Automatic annotation (TrEMBL):
Lineage, broadest ranks: Bacteria, Bacillati, Actinomycetota, Actinomycetes, Kitasatosporales
Protein name from the UniProt record: RNA polymerase sigma-70 factor
Entries under Gene3D superfamilies matching the protein: 1.10.1740.10, 3.10.450.50, Winged helix-like DNA-binding domain superfamily/Winged helix DNA-binding domain
Sorted UniProt keywords: Sigma factor, Transcription, Transcription regulation
Family from the record: Belongs to the sigma-70 factor family. ECF subfamily.
Ranges in coiled-coil conformation: none
BP GO terms, sorted: DNA-templated transcription initiation
RNA polymerase sigma-70 region domain span: 6-68
Gene Ontology MF, one: DNA binding
Length: 298
C-alpha cells in the first residue's frame, strides 16, 4: 500500500524536487530518502497521502538544496541545470513548460532556498500559503512575505520563450542547416540581437567558461564549434526541459546537447551541456506532473 501511494504521486514529487534542486540526480536522491521515511509510516494513519508526501519531499529537497549551494559556488565555468528529457505533451501545459525551462531554472538558482520552495509550491503548483507553511515549518504570514519577495525577483528576471512545437523545431532545423553549411547570414537571421549562449562543461570537457552574448559573437562561436566537431557527429532532435533541443552524438555516445530558447521566431538563448556527469541520464524521459491544481495566473 505504501509503495502504491508513492508510485501514484511520483511524477508530482519528482517535478517538485527537480524544480527546487535543478538536478534530476539530486531529485532522485530526495525521492529515495522520502520513500524511506514514507515506508516507515503507517499509511492508514495518514489522511491525505499526497499532501503528506509533498511535505516530506519539500523538506528533504530544502535540506539537500542548502547542502549543495556551496558546491555550486565552486563550480568550474558556468553552471546549468541538469537537463531532463521531457515528453512533447509537457509543452501543452504552459506553466509547467516555463517552470522547467533552462532560463527559469537559472532564475530560481538566484533565490534563497526558502524563496525557491515557496515560489515553486505556490506559483507553479498552486499550493496555498497555509499548506506551504506546514511544509517548510514557517508561519503563514512569513510565507506570504517570502512569496511576494520571490515573485517580484522572478518576474524582474524571467525570459519569455516558446515551448517545443513544430514551429520552434523548424527554426532549430534551419539553424542547424545554416551552421553545418557555414551560411553566416542565414545563421544571423535566426538569432535575436541580444541572444545569449551558455555552455556547461563542469571543468571536465572543453566548453566556454563564460556566457557569450550578441548575435555576431554567438554566430562566430557556433561556426567555430561546428568546424571543430568530428565528422562522425550525428545530430538528433529531442525535447528537453519543455524546449526544442539538439543532441550531438559522436561514436554513438551523447557528446553534448543544446536546448534552444525561442521567442517571436528568433533564437534568444542557447544552453549547451557538455558536462558528462549531467549527460549520463539524459536518455531517460521524465514524466512531469503539477498534481491537477488550478492553473497559476501571473
Amino acid at each position: 500500500m505504501a509503495e502504491g501511494a508513492f508510485t501514484e504521486h511520483r511524477p508530482l514529487l519528482f517535478t517538485i524536487a527537480y524544480e527546487m534542486l535543478g538536478s534530476a540526480t539530486d531529485a532522485e536522491d530526495v525521492l529515495q530518502e522520502s520513500y524511506l521515511r514514507w515506508s516507515a509510516v503507517d499509511p492508514a494513519a495518514v489522511e491525505h497521502p499526497r499532501a503528506y508526501l509533498v511535505r516530506v519531499v519539500t523538506r528533504q529537497a530544502l535540506n539537500h538544496l542548502r547542502a549543495v549551494r556551496a558546491r555550486r559556488e565552486e563550480y568550474v565555468g558556468t553552471w546549468l541545470p541538469e537537463p531532463i528529457r521531457t515528453a512533447p505533451e509537457v509543452s501543452d501545459d504552459a506553466i509547467l513548460a516555463e517552470s522547467v525551462s533552462m532560463a527559469m531554472m537559472l532564475v530560481l538558482e538566484t533565490l534563497s532556498p526558502a524563496e525557491r520552495a515557496v515560489f515553486v509550491l505556490h506559483d507553479v503548483f498552486a499550493y496555498t500559503h497555509g499548506e506551504i507553511a506546514a511544509s517548510i515549518g514557517k508561519t503563514e504570514v512569513t510565507v506570504r512575505q517570502i512569496a511576494h519577495r520571490a515573485r517580484r525577483h522572478v518576474h524582474a528576471r524571467r525570459r519569455r520563450f516558446e515551448p517545443d512545437s513544430d514551429a520552434t523545431r523548424e527554426i532549430v532545423q534551419r539553424f542547424l542547416r545554416a551552421a553545418a553549411t557555414g551560411e553566416i547570414q542565414a545563421l544571423m537571421d535566426l538569432l535575436a540581437p541580444d541572444v545569449v549562449q551558455i555552455s556547461d562543461g563542469g571543468g571536465k570537457v572543453v566548453a566556454a567558461r563564460r556566457p557569450i552574448t550578441g548575435r555576431d559573437d554567438v554566430a562566430r562561436f557556433v561556426l567555430g564549434v561546428i568546424r571543430t566537431s568530428a565528422a562522425t557527429t550525428r545530430v538528433e532532435h529531442a525535447t528537453y526541459n519543455g524546449m526544442p533541443a539538439a543532441r550531438f552524438l559522436t561514436g554513438g555516445e551523447l557528446d553534448w546537447l543544446v536546448a534552444f530558447e525561442i521567442h517571436n521566431g528568433r533564437i534568444t538563448g542557447l544552453y549547451g551541456i557538455r558536462n558528462p556527469d549531467k549527460l549520463h541520464r539524459a536518455e531517460t524521459v521524465h514524466p512531469l506532473d503539477r498534481g491537477g491544481h488550478l492553473p497559476w495566473k501571473p
